[in-house]
Amino acid sequence: MRNLMIAGNWKMNKTYEEGVVLAQGLADALTGKEFKGVDVVVCPPTVDLKGVSEVIDQAQAPFALGAQNVYWEESGAFTGETAPSMLTAVNATYCIIGHSERRGYFGETDEDINKKAKALMAHDIVPISCCGEPLEVREAGKHVEFVVDQIKKDTEGLDLSDPSKYVIAYEPIWAIGTGKTATADDAQEVCCAIRETLAEIFGKETADKVRVLYGGSAKPGNIAELVAKPDVDGALVGGASLKADSFSEMVLNAAATL
Ligand code: 13P
After folding, report:
1. What digits encode the pLDDT tens for the residues 34-86?
2. What share of the chain is helix, strand, coil (3-state, %, to 5)?
3. Which residues of 229-248 are buried (b: 16+ CB within 10 A; e: fewer)?
């Protein structure tokens, strides 16, 4: 019903040349392999996008390109920012928004994230919209309501008439880069609550078609268990996406569950 998705968030890692080498390594590792039913995306730093795009094009690589951030204006005096049309120009078809690192270090709000989603969708770029609770919220047992509140604000007024073109990533902050993975049951609990929230807002048929990923120390050894859960449709991967062998292994391990 829904394709799985394995998306790599390289974060602020890999210079232009290193990014090209990683993309080429991934193309080599995945070309000719069987992973029907799994969509693969790599999200390099902005300055690497063009180089990775060229690798994908030349190698006919079986993965898509995503950015890590965008601004919602079309053009103009917004120093340091990147417009949706600039992403399209380098063939980026996905873009991560609302990552907890951007919320935490750069003060992004749910309102900003909602505007970014609308701007991307107007340019036919698929948002990978992140949500997730900090440790103290989890410890207080308030994680579901915290994430549901983020989802309501982040999706306000979106047109999900093509639900395959909007992706959510649930990333509990305490599990990011810590080696502390949420259990598959933890991931399922929140991913299910996210889908129920989408069903309330957009209807069940739409909600059933939106991919909800898990992120936070996802790796080759735990991806199968995660995607075996009914509401976990793949992973947004940080550390394990920085090496072609571990990332390609995740793709194949996810595919093996289908
Ligand atoms: P890690 O996989 O390194 O924990 O990072 C997760 C993440 O933040 C992906 O966006």
Report:
1. 999 999 999 999 999 999 999 999 999 999 999 999 999 999 999 999 999 99
2. 45, 15, 40
3. bebbbbbbbbbbbbebebbb
Angstrom distance (rounded) from CA 197 to CA 84: 28
Select from 3.90.170.10, 2.60.40.10, 3.20.20.70, 3.60.20.10 the CATH code of 4-255. Answer: 3.20.20.70
Instruction: For residue 99, indicate whether it is catalytic.
Output: yes
* 143 contacts 172 by C-beta, under 8 angstroms: yes
Angle at 218 between CA 215 and CA 220, to 5 degrees: 150
For residues 93 and 126, the answer to whether their CB atoms sit within 8 Å is yes
Residue 181 has pLDDT above 80, yes or no: no
- Check if 123 is active-site: no
**Ligand 1 — pocket residues by CB below 6 A?**
9, 99, 171, 176-177, 215-218, 236-240
Per-residue pLDDT tens digits for 191-234: 999 999 999 999 999 999 999 999 999 999 999 999 999 999 99
**Catalytic-labelled residue, pool 99, 108, 143, 189:** 99
